[in-house]
Design goal:
The complex is a heterotrimer of chains A (281), B (84) and C (508). Chain A is 46% helix and 16% strand. With 281 residues, chain A is α/β, with parallel strands linked by helices. Chain A folds into two domains: 225 residues, TIM Barrel (Alpha-Beta Barrel), CATH 3.20.20; 46 residues, no CATH class. Chain B has one domain: Ribosomal Protein S5, domain 2 (2-Layer Sandwich). Helices cover 43% and strands 30% of the residues of chain B. In chain B, strands 1-2-4-3 form a four-stranded mixed beta sheet. The chains are: A alpha/beta (281), B alpha+beta (84), C alpha/beta (508).
Chain lengths: 281, 84, 508
C-alpha cells in the first residue's frame, strides 16, 4: 500500500545516495525517460551497485525499466538478480508488452530461482486505457499507474489543472484497479513550484478514487502524503465506530446519528489499517 | 582503446580508462585526504573482478561513494572494450 | 596541558575550563576613553596616520559591517604598505574574501598578529599555510567585546567605517549611500579604543538619532567611498530546493513543535543559510496557524525576519548587523527593529544579554563530534574557513541550542570522533538534526524525556556516526603539522583550542 512514490533518475548519484531519507512510501528508480540513451549503461550499473551495497534502502524499491521492444530490456531486468527490487514498473504497458514481460520474467525467475516479480503497469497509451482491465487482472500486476503526460501527448491535447481531459482515463484506471483489489496510482503533477496546483490535483485524484500519487521532486511528498493519508478526524471516527461495533456485535446499528452496516464497517477497518501502516496512530 | 564514464557533478566521478603497458591508477579527488585508500581499493577490486590488467585509470572524483566509483569504472571498462 | 575539552594548550596560556567558568571571575572594565570636546576633521588617510602618530606594533581595529563591500580596511592597508609600518596587530571583527590588500602586508610582516572572530578567503588560506609571522587569535563576537572593554585587547586606533556622520562626530549606519544598518560590532571599539576615527562618505549637518556617539570620536575622515553597500548581502531569500535541506528543516520544525518551543512570547535566532530560512518559514506557518506572537528574533537580521516583524509575528528584532538591504531599510524606519552592540548581544559578563534571553537557536556546523563539540572554524583538511562569530555566544546563552546539518557533504562526514578544531564546546550543544536522524546531548535528560512520548526518534550520536560510515566508509586521519599558527579563544578569554598549520602534503 502506498500514498506517495518518488521518481529518482537512475543516473543521479546525489539523489540515489539520499533515496532512503525521503518521506515517500516507495522510490521508483528510473532507467527510462529521465536517462539519455547514451547513459543507459551508466544508470543501470549505478542503480545495481547502489542496491547491492547500500544498507538502508527505501521502504519499497520500484524499478522503471525500458520498454519491452527496446534492446535494453534484458540488461535492465538483470537487476532483479540483486533481489532488492520489490516491483518492476512497465512503461507503455498494454496486453502485448505485459505478455512479453511476463515471458521474460518467467525465464529469468526459473534461471536464477527468483520469487515471482511483481509488476506495476504504467498506463500511458490510449490503447492501454481500453485494455486496462486485462492488465489489472494479470496475476503479476499489483498496481496501475496512470501516465497522463504521454497519454495527452498521444491525444494531442493539453493538460490542465482541473484535469477534465484525463477524467475518463483516471476513472478507467481506478475502476480496473479497485475491482481487482490492486492500487490505482495517479500521474505526477509536473510543475514543482506550484504547491496550490499540486494540492488541487491531489484532491481531485483522491476524490475520484486514486489511492496514491507519484512525485517528481521530494518537495511534493509532504503534500501528497497529507492528502492521501486518512485524516485525523477519519481515524478518530473509525476508531470510535469500530469500538462501538465490537461492543454491540450486530450487523447494523446507529452511530453519530447514522445507520451503520457492513460496508461502512469495512471502510472504517481500511482507514485503521492504513493509519497503522503509515504510522499515523 | 579508451573508455570514459561518469561526470564531474557533485557526488559523482569521471573515470577514464585506456590500455597501457602496466596498470597505473591516478586519483584526483576533492576528498583525497580522507578517502584516497578507499578509492584506490574500489578501483583495484573492480579491475580484478572484471579481469582487467595493464590499464591506465584516471579517477576525477567529486565526492562519489564507493558504489558510484565501482559502477562508473565498470561502464568505462565496457566502453573501452567496445571501442577496440 | 589539557583543557576542559581535552585539547592540549601550551603552558602559561589561559586554558578553557567550562562555559560556566566565567561565573567564577568578576568583570573587569578599563575606563572608557576620555571624551573629546571637539571633533577633528581629517583630509586624508595620510593625515590620520600622521596626526595620530600610528606606528609599528600598534593595534588597529575595524568592523565588518560592510562585509565584502568594505573599502576602509582596504584603503588603510594601502597606506600601511606605503608607509612601510611593521609588526602591526590587526583586530577586525571579521575578515572577508574581499580584504585582499591584507595579503601582501601579512607576507611582508607589516601585519604580524591578528585578532578576529571570523575569517575566510585568501587571507584565511595564507594564514592557514603559516604565512602570518605572529599568531592569529579567533574570538567570538561577545568575547571580542569583553576583551576590548577589559583591556585584554587594547586598541590603539579604531577605524570605523560609518555610512553617515554629522559635524559633531555622531554616526549612523541607517542612512547614506552605503547604509548598512546597525553597527553593533564596533561599539566597544568606539568606547574603549585609545583613538577613534570615523570614516565616512556622507557628512551631514546634524543627526537627530545616531548609534555612534561623537563624544568618543577623535576624528572624522571624509572619503569618496567607504565601500559598496551591495556587498553586505550574505543571507539568502531563496528557500532551499535541496531535498536534504528541506527534510532537515521539516524535521527541525516538528521537533520545535514537539518541544513546545514555539509559543507566545518566545524568542529565537537562526543563521542566514537556505536551510535555516526553510526552518524559519516552517516556524512562521506554525505561528500563523496557532496565532502565536513571539517576543523577539535576533542576530544578523534578514528579510524573512523583517517580514515577520511587519506581519506582527514578532514584537521586536534585535539586530547586531543587517544581512541584507531589506533589513537595512527596516532598521531605518521601524522602531521595533532595534540595534544591539556585540556586548549587549553576547558578552558573557552582560547578565541580560540577548544571547541569554534566547529560547532556542539554530546553528550550523562544519563538524560535530561524539561529545557534541562543534567546529565552524576549519575544514576537513585544516584550512580556516570561518570562525565562531556569535556561534559560541548564543550556544551558551540560549535555553536550547540546535545544530542542523546534513550528515554528509560530498562524502565528507560531518560527525567525527573528534572535530579538527573546537569552536563551541559540546556542553552547550543540545540537539543535532540531520537528514538521517536526530541526536540529543545526553546531558539534556529533560529534552529526551519530553520527546519520549512523541513520534520523534532519537539516536545516540554514535549511531549516527555509524550510519555515516556505512555510507561513506571510515575516513583516514588527516595529517597536521606541529606548528601552532594561532588559538581559538573562548568568549571568556581562555583558549579552547589551538590552530595548526595545514600539513605540507595538502598545500597546493
Amino acid at each position: 500500500m502506498f500514498r506517495s512514490l518518488l521518481f529518482v533518475p537512475g543516473n543521479n548519484p546525489s539523489m540515489l545516495q539520499n533515496a532512503d531519507i525521503f518521506m515517500c512510501d516507495a522510490i521508483i528508480f528510473d532507467l527510462e525517460d529521465s536517462v539519455n540513451l547514451d547513459e543507459k549503461d551508466n544508470a543501470r550499473n549505478l542503480v545495481e551497485t547502489y542496491l547491492l551495497t547500500t544498507k538502508e534502502l527505501p521502504k519499497a524499491v520500484i524499478l522503471r525499466i525500458n520498454p519491452v521492444n527496446s534492446e535494453l530490456i534484458n540488461d535492465d531486468l538483470k537487476l532483479l538478480e540483486t533481489r532488492r527490487i520489490d516491483y518492476v514498473l512497465l512503461p507503455k504497458a498494454n496486453k502485448i508488452s505485459l505478455f512479453v514481460l511476463d515471458k521474460i520474467l518467467n525465464d529469468l525467475e526459473n534461471k536464477f530461482e527468483l520469487k515471482q516479480t511483481k509488476v506495476i503497469c504504467l498506463v500511458e497509451e490510449a490503447k492501454a486505457i481500453i485494455e486496462v482491465y486485462d492488465l489489472a487482472i494479470h496475476e503479476r500486476v499489483r498496481g496501475l499507474l496512470l501516465g497522463a503526460e504521454d497519454l495527452t501527448s498521444e491525444l494531442e491535447i493539453n493538460r490542465t489543472i482541473s484535469g477534465e481531459e484525463i477524467l475518463y482515463a483516471r476513472s478507467k484506471v481506478i475502476y480496473a484497479a479497485i475491482s481487482n483489489k490492486i492500487i490505482p496510482i495517479d500521474t505526477p503533477f509536473t510543475d514543482i513550484n506550484d504547491t496550490e496546483g499540486l494540492i488541487k490535483d491531489c484532491k481531485k485524484a483522491l476524490n475520484l478514487g486514486m489511492k496514491a500519487k507519484t512525485a517528481i521532486h521530494p518537495s511534493q511528498l509532504e503534500t501528497i502524503n497529507d492528502i492521501f493519508s486518512p485524516s485525523k478526524e477519519a481515524i478518530e471516527w473509525a476508531k470510535a465506530l469500530l469500538a462501538k461495533a465490537k461492543t454491540l456485535n450486530k450487523g447494523a446499528f446507529q452511530f453519530e446519528g447514522k445507520m451503520i452496516d457492513r460496508p461502512i464497517i469495512e471502510k472504517a477497518k481500511k482507514i485503521i489499517e492504513k493509519a497503522k501502516l503509515f504510522d499515523l496512530m | 582503446m579508451e573508455g570514459q564514464a561518469g561526470s564531474k557533478e557533485s557526488n559523482d566521478c569521471l573515470i577514464t580508462i585506456r590500455k597501457s603497458d602496466e596498470t597505473r591508477i591516478e586519483i584526483d579527488s576533492i576528498v583525497d585526504h580522507l578517502f584516497h585508500d578507499q578509492i584506490l581499493k574500489a578501483v583495484e577490486e573492480t579491475l580484478k573482478e572484471e579481469n582487467i590488467e595493464n590499464v591506465f585509470v584516471l579517477v576525477e572524483d567529486k565526492g562519489a561513494l564507493d558504489y558510484t566509483i565501482r559502477a562508473r569504472l565498470r561502464v568505462a571498462i565496457n566502453r573501452m572494450n567496445k571501442n577496440v | 596541558m589539557l583543557n576542559g575539552v581535552k585539547r592540549d594548550i601550551p603552558k602559561n596560556l589561559p586554558r578553557f575550563i567550562s562555559s560556566d567558568d566565567f561565573l567564577n571571575k568578576s568583570r573587569r572594565l578599563i575606563e572608557k576613553k576620555k571624551k573629546q570636546s571637539k571633533t577633528v576633521f581629517f583630509n586624508s588617510y595620510d593625515e590620520v596616520f600622521d596626526k595620530l602618530k600610528i606606528k609599528d606594533k600598534q593595534t588597529l581595529s575595524f568592523h565588518h559591517h560592510l562585509r565584502n563591500g568594505d573599502k576602509v580596511i582596504q584603503d588603510v592597508s594601502k597606506i600601511i604598505k606605503k608607509l612601510g609600518l611593521k609588526d602591526l596587530h590587526f583586530a577586525p571583527s571579521s575578515i572577508f574574501p574581499s580584504y585582499t590588500n591584507m595579503i601582501d602586508l601579512i607576507f611582508n610582516g607589516n601585519i604580524t598578529n591578528i585578532h578576529t572572530n571570523y575569517l575566510n578567503g585568501e587571507v584565511a588560506k595564507i594564514i592557514s599555510e603559516g604565512k602570518l609571522k605572529g599568531k592569529l587569535v579567533m574570538n567570538t563576537h561577545g568575547g571580542r567585546a569583553r576583551a576590548i572593554e577589559s583591556g585584554d585587547l587594547g586598541i590603539d586606533v579604531a577605524f570605523i567605517a560609518c555610512p553617515t556622520v554629522d559635524k559633531f562626530g555622531n554616526g549612523t549606519g541607517a542612512i547614506g549611500k552605503n547604509a548598512c544598518g546597525t553597527l553593533g560590532y564596533c561599539i566597544s571599539d568606539l568606547e574603549y579604543a585609545k583613538k577613534v576615527v570615523l570614516v565616512t562618505d556622507n557628512l551631514v549637518g546634524k543627526l537627530d538619532s545616531y548609534q555612534l556617539n561623537g563624544e568618543y570620536v577623535d576624528g572624522v575622515l571624509v572619503v569618496d567611498s567607504i565601500g559598496e553597500a551591495k556587498g553586505i548581502v550574505s543571507g539568502t531569500t531563496e528557500i532551499t530546493k535541496d531535498p536534504v535541506g528541506l527534510k532537515i528543516a521539516k524535521d527541525c520544525s516538528s521537533l520545535l513543535y514537539e518541544l513546545d518551543l514555539i509559543k507566545n512570547n518566545f524568542s529565537m535566532q537562526t543563521g542566514a543559510g537556505k536551510t535555516s530560512l526553510a526552518v524559519v518559514n516552517y516556524v512562521k506557518d506554525i505561528m500563523k496557524k496557532q496565532n502565536i506572537i513571539g517576543e523577539f528574533a535576533s542576530g544578523g537580521i534578514t528579510k524573512s525576519y523583517v517580514d515577520m516583524l511587519e506581519e506582527g509575528l514578532f514584537k521586536k528584532l534585535y539586530d547586531v548587523q543587517c544581512f541584507d538591504l531589506d533589513a537595512v531599510k527596516s532598521f531605518r524606519k521601524n522602531k521595533n527593529h532595534i540595534a544591539m552592540s556585540a556586548s549587549e548581544y553576547g558578552n558573557p559578563f552582560v547578565k541580560n544579554s540577548i544571547a541569554n534571553k534566547l529560547d532556542f537557536v539554530i546553528l550550523g556546523a562544519t563538524e560535530i563530534d561524539i561529545d557534541f563539540n562543534v567546529n565552524v572554524t576549519t575544514d576537513s583538511i585544516g584550512y580556516i574557513i570561518g570562525g565562531s562569530g556569535g556561534h559560541a555566544d548564543i550556544a551558551k546563552g540560549a535555553k536550547v541550542t540546535i545544530i542542523i546539518s546534513p550528515l554528509i557533504k560530498s562524502r565528507i562526514p560531518i560527525i567525527k570522533e573528534k572535530v579538527n578544531t573546537i569552536t563551541t564546546p559540546g556542553e552547550d550543544i543540545d540537539i543535532l538534526i540531520t537528514e538521517r536522524g536526530i541526536a540529543i546531548n545526553p546531558k539534556r535528560k529533560d529534552l529526551i524525556e519530553k520527546l519520549k512520548t512523541t513520534k520523534i526518534k532519537i539516536y545516540d550520536i554514535k549511531e549516527l556516526l555509524e550510519k555515516t560510515h556505512n555510507l561513506t566508509g571510515v575516513p583516514s586521519k588527516i595529517k597536521v603539522s606541529d606548528d601552532i599558527i594561532g588559538y581559538v579563544e573562548y568568549r571568556d578569554g581562555t583558549y579552547i583550542d589551538v590552530l595548526r598549520e595545514v600539513h605540507n602534503d595538502y598545500i597546493r
